[in-house]
Design brief:
Helix content of chain B: over 70%
Low-confidence stretches of chain C: none
Number of domains of chain C: 1
Distance between the termini of chain C: 16 Å
Strand content of chain B: under 5%
Number of helices of chain B: 22
Strand content of chain C: under 5%
Oligomer: heterotrimer
Radius of gyration of chain C: 19 Å
Mean pLDDT of chain B: 83
Bound molecules: sodium ion
Number of strands of chain C: 0
């Protein structure tokens, strides 16, 4: 039994369904995956708790949930640090053995790596500068140190909520601004309430399919191998299709009359650099992102940039739009 | 074995064990059967602390209890009497409005009959309304107002179903008003029939009443206005209302003594909130285990096999909810039944907002339905009348309410008129 | 001596219930002012306010036990013959004590597990959430007192606080 926030019929759930059929087929029904979609099992921290007590055996987590069992992995989603998907992929591949080990040490087996995609601000109100963004009632995924650090360095005082309550809270006006990906905003229906979308993208959000280590250890080596192999394939599909569907979702949103606001030109890049430094310092200080993994990520980025001399675009142009 | 244990627990409940212990007991049995760690129950229960909308319940309850102890019932009756007493059936209409206003704040917890019934019954009798009409009116009015903001029942439905509370507040307005109009019409008819004397209208008296009652009467429009203008959120409105009511009662009317009575108001509120929300908490735990045991899916499959249209589903739903409504407390009914029924109803194309109004309408009626409706017992105690006298007295009112129920159930536009068609379509697409 | 301890317990329970409710009101008002006038607000205040609801639930629940005000669906209660009423009530209270005791156990277990997994920045929330085990524990105690204490004495107890 596994759980995800993704609603039935979404890109993610379709791939997961295929994956669970595949697993069931290859293991002749010995391993069956039952997925509870749509957040019925609760927010990611709730799902983690249910895994601990054995009600669930695994789940799909975004960086937020991953941060609650192995926060160093979130070095891959520090806002404004990566300039292209190539960089993200390069750093991730290099750090992967360490991340897998980190998951394992904290009780989880990484079955498949996935992505949630490029995160933007979605708001009910038009905002054209950071100042105007500060005046919004911005959602904070309750208990997320990463987002919290960035908001506090930006001067935004967000409203902490479980993701389960976001849709209702957008209608009651408790919040008017959220951060999410175009695909997720369509899948979770948040787009209904938010007309204005930031052109700038903060970060390429990560995700993982994980299984409780205790449960995984009980499987036969053969079944373990099947789960890993199919999980890796499903993960790659999730990465590819999420990247593609986020692009199509953006087109759909613009066709529905949504408006792009807050371009890179509207922001002082030095200010942005400064607030990133403040936030990252805070995260390192609290131990949420260990300094050594941050150093290594930065070195890897530099290494990548040196080897790719013709791909030296600035933040404003390198990110896909 | 599992069935025996659950039946045993239900019997204990019917014998008078607190409802939350019965629900927790069933959850424990299910967890034990599924070989789950019982700490899982607490995971769900803890989610009470993450729900932003639940915050509004203690705050609105605080406002309601302050109003009750601060003498608002007396003031309200006096105001409505001076304003509407001149109409044929005037006092009947006054009673309806006062009860509705009051229930919206206090929840249908019997407080309305206890606080207002004792004042209104002698007044109605003195004006020569017949005893059956007076009793029936006050008994059924004990749950009137359930559909008006900031009714605790609506808040709870919103929390349990995840439907926007704002939408529910809007959706309840017209159906609620129609019911009051229908019962008001009956009151006018009775007054004419019984030759109840009419009182002359005095503009100066009405104006004085309006001025005296401005603080109380401005509450509902202020709450609604501030929420819909986007000025405040529902839970912020609740905090403002509570602060406003306490201020008005303590400073303007001086009917509440801060030192002496505020503690008793707070204790009263805690008891009200604690007894309702502890059930919410354990019901969340039970619901998780029901999902784990695939109960909602199984129910849905059975339904789809036997019920083929939305119309017949709604009819079945009404019958079921009326029975549930007369056996269960309104809050327990919402908490226990909504998670089971909502997914089935959406599958039949019932809008979740409309479902909420149907739910509350049924429970409102079930509250006064013989043989076991809670209002009947409370009224029997309050007016010291045998229960069968109240059965008879409530019948004409129940007939009117059933007619209204059909209207609420099958004319979904009465609840959803404010939604643009595209929104309705989108919410259907979602399913 | 016992009476004193008992009355102290009553006072503490009532004080926490009243205090949480008023604190909730004040925090909610404070946040409204902070957000609407100063575009600021404390994340911690929102989280604390939602936890205060738990305090009101548990301590309100405890008061409700004292006042016998918990919601019941006692359709069959009048079947119990009058001379067995007292014994039946005791039995039901014993049942409630048992359920609350099991819930207390579950809550302690939950809290101890949470203590291991709670990230540092949320440690204060962990301590606020102590209300769950403590609340269930006090509820168990309350029902146990009702089993042991004759029904007619309950009115006096309630009166005493
Ligand atoms: Na009500
Ligand atoms: Na009832």
């Amino acid at each position: 039994k596994m759980a995800t926030l993704a609603p039935p019929g979404s890109t993610w759930m379709n791939i997961i369904d295929d994956w669970s059929n595949e697993v069931s087929e290859q293991t002749n029904g010995a391993v069956k995956i039952k997925m509870y979609p749509n957040g019925v099992a609760g927010d990611e921290p709730d799902v983690l708790r249910k895994i601990r007590y054995g009600q669930l055996q695994g789940g799909l987590f975004s960086g937020y949930g991953i941060g609650r069992f192995y926060s160093p992995a979130r070095v891959l989603e520090i806002p404004f640090m990566y300039e292209s998907l190539g960089e993200v992929d390069y750093v991730r591949d290099a750090l992967m053995p360490e991340i897998e080990q980190g998951y394992r040490d904290n009780g989880f087996e990484l079955i498949g790596w996935m992505e949630v995609g490029f995160v933007r601000f979605f708001s009910k109100n038009r905002f054209t500068s950071l100042d105007e963004l500060r005046q919004q009632r911005v959602w904070l995924w309750q208990g997320d140190p990463l987002a919290s650090a960035f908001f506090s360095s930006t001067g935004i005082s967000p409203i902490p909520l479980s993701i389960i309550d976001v849709y209702t809270s957008l209608s009651t006006g408790l919040i008017d601004t959220v951060y999410t990906t175009p695909l997720a905003s369509l899948a979770l229906q948040w787009f209904n309430k938010t007309r204005y979308i930031s052109k700038i993208q903060m970060v390429n959000a990560i995700g993982s399919i994980v299984v409780d280590r205790r449960v995984f250890a009980k499987l036969t080596p053969e079944h373990q191998a099947i789960l890993r192999a199919t999980g890796a394939v499903a993960g790659q599909r999730l990465v590819d299709e999420t990247r593609r569907d986020n692009e199509t979702s953006m087109t759909v949103l613009l066709e529905k009359g949504h408006e792009l606001v807050l371009d890179w030109d509207d922001i002082d890049l030095d200010e942005l650099e400064e607030l990133r430094a403040t936030a990252v310092a805070e995260l390192v200080e609290s131990g949420y992102i260990p300094e050594d993994i941050l150093r290594r990520a930065l070195n890897l980025i530099e290494e990548y940039r040196e080897n790719q001399p013709d791909d030296d675009a600035s933040v404003s142009t390198a990110l896909p739009h | 074995m599992l069935t025996a244990a659950i039946v045993g627990l239900i019997i204990l409940g019917l014998l008078g064990a607190p409802l939350f212990t019965v629900i927790a007991g069933i959850a424990l049995v299910l967890a034990y059967t599924a070989q789950l760690d019982i700490a899982v129950l607490i995971v769900e229960l803890y989610r009470v602390a993450s729900s932003p909308n639940l915050l509004a319940i203690p705050l609105f309850a605080l406002a309601g209890v302050s109003l009750a102890q601060g003498g608002a019932p007396k003031r309200l009756i006096a105001i409505f009497q001076d304003l509407l007493g001149w109409m044929p059936g005037g006092l009947g209409i006054v009673s309806l409005l006062a009860c509705a206003f009051f229930t919206a704040f206090s929840g249908a917890s019997g407080i309305t009959i206890l606080a207002l019934g004792g004042l209104l019954y002698p007044m109605l009798r003195r004006q020569h309304y017949n005893s059956n009409f007076s009793l029936g009116l006050l008994t059924t009015s004990g749950s009137l107002g359930l559909l008006f903001p900031p009714s605790l029942a609506i808040l709870l439905y919103g929390v349990v179903s995840g439907v926007s509370i704002e939408d529910l507040f809007l959706a309840g307005l017209l159906p609620g008003a129609v019911l009051i109009a229908m019962l008001g019409g009956y009151s006018i008819y009775t007054a004419r029939h019984d030759h109840v004397p009419r009182y002359p209208f005095s503009a100066s008296k009405a104006f004085a009443a309006l001025r005296a009652g401005a603080w109380d009467l401005s509450l509902p429009p202020a709450i609604l206005g501030s929420i819909y203008s986007g000025l405040v959120t529902v839970s912020e409105a609740a905090a403002c209302t509570a602060a406003y009511v306490i201020f008005v009662e303590c400073v303007i009317y001086r009917s509440l003594n801060v030192r002496k009575q505020l503690t008793s108001v707070c204790m009263e509120t805690s008891v009200l909130v604690g007894s309702i929300l502890i059930i919410v908490a354990v019901a969340m735990a039970l619901n998780n285990l029901l999902i784990d045991a695939d109960v909602p899916m199984t129910l849905l499959a059975i339904m789809q096999e036997h019920v083929d249209s939305k119309t017949s589903f709604l009819l079945l739903l009404n019958v079921f909810l009326l029975i549930a409504g007369c056996m269960m407390d309104i809050f327990s009914a919402i908490i226990v039944l909504v998670p089971l029924i909502l997914p089935i109803a959406t599958r039949y194309g019932v809008d979740p907002v409309h479902l909420g109004i149907i739910f509350l309408a049924n429970l409102e009626i079930g509250y006064s339905t013989p043989p076991v409706g809670m209002n009947l017992f409370i009224a029997s105690q309050r007016f010291r009348k045998p229960i069968f006298v109240l059965f008879r007295a409530a019948l004409p009112f129940l007939a009117i309410m059933l007619l209204w129920l059909m209207f609420v159930t099958y004319v979904d536009q009465a609840s959803l008129w404010w939604q643009s068609p595209s929104v309705v379509n989108q919410s259907l697409d979602r399913l | 001596m016992m009476t004193r301890v008992y009355q102290l317990l009553c006072r503490i329970e009532s004080a926490i219930a009243i205090g949480s409710l008023l604190a909730l009101l004040l925090i909610a008002l404070g946040q409204i002012i902070a957000r609407n006038l100063f575009d600021s607000g404390l994340i911690e205040a929102d989280v604390l306010a939602r936890h205060l609801v738990l305090y009101i639930v548990f301590f309100g629940s405890i008061l409700a036990i004292r006042r016998n005000a918990h919601i019941r669906i006692d359709l069959l209660a009048h079947w119990i013959p009058p001379h067995n009423q007292v014994r039946a009530t005791r039995l039901l209270n014993l049942f409630a004590t048992g359920i609350c005791a099991v819930l207390t156990y579950a809550a302690i277990k939950f809290w101890l597990t949470e203590r291991i997994y709670t990230p540092d920045h949320e440690m204060w929330v962990l301590f606020v959430s102590l209300v769950i085990p403590i609340g269930f524990c006090l509820m168990t105690l309350r029902y146990a007192i009702q089993v042991w204490r004759p029904v007619e004495k309950q009115a006096e107890d309630t009166h005493a606080c």
